[in-house]
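Last lecture ended with a question: if I hand you only a sequence, what can you say about the shape of the protein? Today we answer it with a concrete record. The protein is HPr family phosphocarrier protein. Below, first the input exactly as provided, then the predicted structure, then a couple of comments.
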Amino acid sequence: MVSKKVKVVNPSGLHLRPAGVLSQTAMKFKSRTLIECGEKHIVAKSVLNVMAAGIKCGTEITVACDGPDEEEALKTITEAIESGLGEELEQ
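The predicted structure:
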């Protein structure tokens, strides 16, 4: 298992669109992917779980991947989060 802390940079947090992008990215990998936010452990492949977590802009989360492609999954998912999950970021 590998993990990395990242900060959510989306101005409106992980609402429907970025949560969908995050889940779609996680689904490309065989590894199990969890997002840890405080006491919550969220399955990243479930868009509803990601949205329901109510993760806001500026929140530091830990992405943890476990499986055959965990290194690649962690790198891809954390880069997607750090780049705003396809949303335009405020300057």
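Comments.
1. The chain has a mean pLDDT of 94.
2. The longest strand covers residues 60-66.
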